[in-house]
Write a structure and sequence with these properties.
This protein is of the alpha/beta class and 282 residues long. The chain contains 10 helices and 9 strands. The mean pLDDT is 91.
Amino acid sequence: MRDRLKSVSGKKTLVTGAASGIGRATALAAARAGAELVLTDIDADGLAETVESIECAGAKVLASRALDISDYDAVTEFATEVHAQHGSLDVVMNIAGVSAWGTVENLEHRHWRSMVDVNLMGPIHVIENFVPPMVRAGRGGALVNVSSAAGLLAFPWHAAYSASKFGVRGLSEVLRFDLARHGITVHLVVPGAVNTNLVETIEIVGVDRDDPRVQRYVKRFQHHAVPPEQAAEQIMRGIQKNRYMIHTSFDVRFGYWWARKFALPYEFVMRRANDLFNSFLR
């Protein structure tokens, strides 16, 4: 087994979701650390801005492509080109994701489908295409998968989102041991509240986002949320320290511990939280 990855400096590093939020912040942090970057996002303009920022700072972008990670053929085509021009990668970071909330009677099939297609099948498409060449290369490396606090805890209205993020957690738990013999470390990122553009654009099905009560809770969330740059720092530190589960804030770490140690109080709190959320329904 190879020694675990201690730095991304000089390592060929893929970051998905690099146009904004945690993905962009992580791409910039990896660039500052000396990584050679391969970047993707569905947002072509945002991706171009990230590439420009990295190159203006003197760092290297080996390749970038605007694509939808839920499109297996598009991911495969990009991976083929990257491997032909640059060989196998050293670090793969699955950060891209989408979110929609709602009660089961309000969620439509398209919401369930998009959560699973982008948040779960997207990372699987990336893993299918980029990790086997890493294994064959025999250099070791790192795989980073971004799940969510909603992949640990039963937050109200998160059924579709949690279905995808619990899936990422299960996938990572297996690969953590499967890839160890190849010297590839696996890191599961479980962000809590992070102040990205997603906060303003997330679809909450069956709820009027202009409702003053909803706006108050959104502002409270933003006040509590950490900046994406802090989340990116935690990801980089987690890779260096070989942490499997990477928390972006203390409240997620504490909440997960509390839920496992105190099951009955946890159930009570979640029932009360659902009652509170349901008061916002139209």
